[in-house]
Amino acid sequence: MGEPILVWIRKDLRLVDNPALFHALKDGIAVPVYIYDEDYEREWSLGGASKWWLHQALSDFESSIHKLGGKLIIRYGDTWSQLHELIHEIKPKAIYWNRRYEPHIVEKDQQIERMTSSKKLDVKTFNAHLLHEPWEIAQKNGNPYKVFTAYYKATQKQLVSNPVPKITQFSKIERDVYTESVSDLKLLPTINWTHTIEKTWNATENGGISLFKQFLKQKMMSYESGRDFPAKSIHSSLSPYFAFGQLSPRVLYHYLLKKAQTMHSASFQRQSEQFLRQLVWRDFAYHLLYHFPDTTVSSLNPLFTNFKWEKHEKHFNAWKKGQTGYPLVDAGMRQLWQTGFMHNRVRMVTSSFLVKHLLIHWKEGAQWFWDTLVDADLANNTLGWQWIAGSGADAAPYFRIFNPITQSEKFDHDAEYIKMWVPELRNLPNTYIHKPWETPQNVLNEAGIQLGETYPFPIVEHKAARARALERYHELKASQKT
Ligand SMILES: Cc1cc2nc3c(=O)[nH]c(=O)nc-3n(C[C@H](O)[C@H](O)[C@H](O)COP(=O)(O)OP(=O)(O)OC[C@H]3O[C@@H](n4cnc5c(N)ncnc54)[C@H](O)[C@@H]3O)c2cc1C
């Protein structure tokens, strides 16, 4: 029996490849502690959908630890006060945790590290969240990357560290330490709006592992060609498990690499590379956030600092509710509200619609996604919105505006996705479903649709909105020259 070691659990709610837990168990008696502290997250405390997920994930993690003979101590309130109290009660020889990378968290973690060190406690921190930590990849001159392809190339020359073995046993410290229950954290909404989310997800560590296995068996081999088509659902849906640290990207990376080597299949290798490339996008998002800490609120590209945005409550509400009159946009926004998830291609179309067609600031869209996504992740969300706004890490030399009609015709050709989420359009023939406002009256009648009543007219006209966005962009460029 060794001495106790506090393991401060955060975005690492898992037994597989959890280095802080693993090393604490090796070096002494691991005492896992979770502290729910909204202030620690500053303005990025969890949104409603993420709170629901955390409730499930934490309950699952608590029960997994219990089954292995251990106990997860749950507390809420100020992090340092809670840690301080626990240090006093448990008298650990050290405190271990897995690192986080959001700028405001890095700053607070450094304070915690100083305070614990001043108590003569050994502090050890580990990487559990990324393939490559933000400072591991740099340009020759030491600067961070701003372009994905160059970043990706650089990552291919670096090794990804090996995962640590799965935790199989805990031992308990002798004294009983007080813990709150997961329900005490009051993460679930008082009005139950989460029933479709509940039906959609199994938010446990094993749920994530099963989903990965299913992806591997049924979807991986068509990932590259299928991932852009929302109705095909050829993507993995693993993002919330990564966001809460229930899955380790490093485990998936090494597993796929090994499988590709043993299978000797060029097509498996190609598909798994495409999938792993997305995990590198995730790392890139953290690289950018870490090195450009203001990008959650300010443009990465300073050209966009003075972009003239519109305030339009009615348009913003129509977008949030999936009532814009553009079926693909509305389908995406309704999928998000009902399931806490939206397909990546549709995220691009809906976010572009908000910032380009409606000229509403990307920060407002990012905030809505933050509240409603079960995979809300500060790095990925910031990267996604800045990329779409044109103010982020995008190598395209032009002002990209997604056309919600042609995107719909191309990526949801048979309108299966639209029909799933916008059922009032279900009887409309596919020729018209991507732009219902062009449907002849008799066809609308037959389909039981009354535009403006059962489904809205478009809130802005596409060509005019596109022209307005381009005009804003050209004005901005011109103002830089004067
Ligand atoms: C405006 C906007 C906002 C976004 N907000 C988030 C967010 O809050 N949280 C989030 O996890 N993703 C976000 N994304 C990225 C992407 O849409 C999701 O990661 C993806 O749809 C998750 O589905 P999946 O797990 O099936 O992905 P898969 O295609 O199966 O990809 C595997 C994993 O790679 C990572 N990944 C995939 N695409 C991206 C990407 N473009 N950027 C960074 N990582 C990626 C995710 O961790 C994902 O789980 C956003 C994209 C946009 C355009």
From TrEMBL:
<feature type="domain" description="Photolyase/cryptochrome alpha/beta">
    <location>
        <begin position="3"/>
        <end position="131"/>
    </location>
</feature>
<dbReference type="Pfam" id="PF03441">
    <property type="entry name" value="FAD_binding_7"/>
</dbReference>
<dbReference type="InterPro" id="IPR018394">
    <property type="entry name" value="DNA_photolyase_1_CS_C"/>
</dbReference>
<dbReference type="InterPro" id="IPR036134">
    <property type="entry name" value="Crypto/Photolyase_FAD-like_sf"/>
</dbReference>
<dbReference type="GO" id="GO:0003904">
    <property type="term" value="F:deoxyribodipyrimidine photo-lyase activity"/>
</dbReference>
<dbReference type="InterPro" id="IPR006050">
    <property type="entry name" value="DNA_photolyase_N"/>
</dbReference>
<dbReference type="InterPro" id="IPR002081">
    <property type="entry name" value="Cryptochrome/DNA_photolyase_1"/>
</dbReference>
<protein>
    <submittedName>
        <fullName>Deoxyribodipyrimidine photo-lyase</fullName>
        <ecNumber>4.1.99.3</ecNumber>
    </submittedName>
</protein>
<dbReference type="Pfam" id="PF00875">
    <property type="entry name" value="DNA_photolyase"/>
</dbReference>
<dbReference type="InterPro" id="IPR014729">
    <property type="entry name" value="Rossmann-like_a/b/a_fold"/>
</dbReference>
<keyword id="KW-0157">Chromophore</keyword>
<comment type="similarity">
    <text>Belongs to the DNA photolyase family.</text>
</comment>
<dbReference type="InterPro" id="IPR005101">
    <property type="entry name" value="Cryptochr/Photolyase_FAD-bd"/>
</dbReference>
<keyword id="KW-0456">Lyase</keyword>
<keyword id="KW-0285">Flavoprotein</keyword>
<dbReference type="InterPro" id="IPR036155">
    <property type="entry name" value="Crypto/Photolyase_N_sf"/>
</dbReference>
<keyword id="KW-0274">FAD</keyword>
